[in-house]
Amino acid sequence: MPVVTLAEIDATCRKAARGHGCAWGMAEEAGKSARWLASHGLPGAEAIADMLSDGAQCCRRTGRPCALARGVALADRATLIDAQPIAIDTTAQPLLILAQMGRAADALGQAFALEWETGGATLAPQSLSIRGQLTPSAMTCTAIDPGADGTAPLAHSRPVKDARWTALTALSHRILVPASDASRAGAGAGTHDSD
C-alpha cells in the first residue's frame, strides 16, 4: 500500500474527479473531502475511487445526485440546519456526506449530528466521533451544541489501497496533455532566458 501525504490525496482525487468528467468545482470538493476523511484516519481516497469507478454512484452516469453532490448541497445550506432533522436519501458512499458536513462544522464553528440506521456521527469543529457502523442507508442531520468531544484531525501521510490509488492516478492522467512534437515545441526557456 502506498503511503501518501494529505496534499497528494487532495490533488490526486481532485484531478481524478476532473479526469472522470466532474466539473472543476465538484472535483475540488472531491479532493477536499478525501483529504478531510484521511486526516481523520478514514479511507477518503478509497471512497472517491469507489464513487468514480462505479457508474451506479456517479451523477454523470445516472443523472441523480451522487454522495458528493448531496454532501455539497447539504453543506451549502449548513447555516439553515437547526434541531429539526433534515432527511438525506440513501447513498452508496456515506463517508462523503460525513466529509462535507465535517468541513462545514470546521468552517462555521458549528456542530452537527448525523444519524443512520446502524449508528451516527458527531461532527464538531476540528472533531469527529463515530458510533456504530457507517453503512449505506438514509440519514438525518441536525445542528447540535458544539461542545462535543471526538478525535481531532491528524497530520501527515496515510496509506491508500494499491488498486484504488492506481485507479485514481489513471483517472488523473486524463487531464494531462499528451506529449507530442507540437506540445514540446517552444517548451522551456529556449535559447533566450531572461531570468
Which helices and strands occur, and which strands form pairs?
Layout: E1 3-5, H1 6-20, H2 24-39, H3 44-53, H4 59-62, H5 67-76, E2 86-88, H6 94-108, E3 111-116, E4 119-124, E5 127-132, E6 139-144, E7 157-159, H7 162-172, H8 181-184
Antiparallel strand pairs: 1-7, 2-6, 3-4, 3-6, 4-5
Could you write a compact summary of the structure shown?
The protein has one domain (3-174). It contains 8 helices and 7 strands.
Keywords:
44% helix, elongated, 8 helices, 195 residues, single chain, alpha+beta, five-stranded antiparallel beta sheet
Question: Can you walk me through this structure?
Answer:
- Helices cover 44% and strands 17% of the residues.
- The chain is an alpha+beta fold.
- The protein has one domain (3-174).
- Helix 1 (6-20) runs antiparallel to helix 2 (24-39), helix 1 (6-20) packs across helix 7 (162-172) and helix 2 runs antiparallel to helix 3.
- The longest helix has 16 residues, at 24-39.
- The protein starts with a strand and ends in an 11-residue tail after the last helix.
Task: Kindly name the structural category.
Answer: alpha+beta
Using the alpha-carbon principal axes, give the shape: elongated
Bin the helical content. 40-55%
Please list the strands of the largest sheet in the order they lie side by side: 2-6-3-4-5
